Amino acid sequence: MRQKPCLTHEDVRILAEACRQKAMTQQLAVTIAIVDDGGHLWHLERLDARPSTIEVAIGKARTAALMRAPSAALEDLIKDMPGILALNAMPLRGALPVMVGEDCVGAIGVSGAQPVDDESIAEAGRTALTAYGPLGAG
After folding, report:
1. 38-42-44 Cα angle (round to 5)
2. How would you class 125 by CB atoms within 10 Å of its CB: exposed for 0-12, middle for 13-18, buried for 19 or more?
């Protein structure tokens, strides 16, 4: 049987802390959502962001986890295949999958700032986890 890595509580703490610090450093009011590989919510943090950012951050994260690709990848696909919207996907930039080799172990979705800033906050989480070492090493 194949074994697959998965996020641990410590991994999620590292992801969330790095995202929070990046958002606070840039003084951005955002919501940060972290999901597992099935798109199930693991962590949610709202940093003085509008209430509407909650569902958007979760949707972006879920989309990135289930697609195993950045949520922005859907933006281009929708032009040619608008039926994708029926999948309840969130085709907005601001979420990135968390990968270990070829395996997606989860995703980070951010909403509340400009899309490029949302994505950069998510990237800060991924970078911090990579710098920490292999998933589950802590």
Report:
1. 125
2. buried
Looking at residue 134, its pLDDT comes to 57
Could you tell me the mean pLDDT of each successive run of 10 residues in the chain, 138 residues long?
A: 94 98 98 98 98 97 95 85 81 94 96 98 96 60
Record the pTM: 0.92
Each domain of the chain, given as residue ranges in start order, spans: 9-129
Instruction: Give the single-character DSSP code of 101.
Output: T
- Is residue 73 within 8 A of residue 96, CB to CB? The reply is no
Please give the class, per CATH, of domain 9-129.
alpha beta
Q: How far apart are CA 138 and CA 131, in angstroms?
A: 12
Side-by-side strand order, sheet with 95-100? 41-46, 31-36, 103-111, 95-100
> Tell me, what's the pLDDT at 78?
84
